[in-house]
Amino acid sequence: xxxxxxxxxxxxxxxxxxxxxxxxxxxxxxxxxxxxxxxxxxxxxxxxxxxxxxxxxxxxxxxxxxxxxxxxxxxxxxxxxxxxxxxxxxxxxxxxxxxxxxxxxxxxxxxxxxxxxxxxxxxxxxxxxxxxxxxxxxxxxxxxxxxxxxxxxxxxxxxxxxxxxxxxxxx
Length: 171
Hints:
Blueprint: H1 3-6, H2 10-15, H3 19-53, H4 56-68, H5 71-89, H6 93-113, H7 116-119, H8 121-129, H9 137-152, H10 154-163, H11 167-170
Helix pairs in contact: 4-9, 5-6, 5-9, 5-10, 6-9, 6-10
């Protein structure tokens, strides 16, 4: 409400003449927006559906490790965000492939570190949730393994979006 008093919006009127640029921007970002929106819904709908399909105890045994492992999408997103400028700056596919190799090695370090909690799953669950949640150890291990593949895919997805400029393949 008060922003018009502090900022001048002359750039908006000037940008209206650049329809081609606006059209290109929106065509690129609609796919990325679709993918992020779908991921946000998927991230929450599993627990809601499980409550309808299973007992509350079974739903809790799934929801506890699921929420504990919700840090992994943040790590994957942070890696993609860190890699995006490198991919976007490369107009040459050959140089982009060199960047891809480099980012894959960096991501592999994080991905291998993400496998350690699989070995320590029982201890992690007991420390954080207590002995009552020992039944969720296998769920924790399976979900953690799935997160490994999500982390390892960060360079590929970032290259698809920014190096090859094909965001429709991402969604």
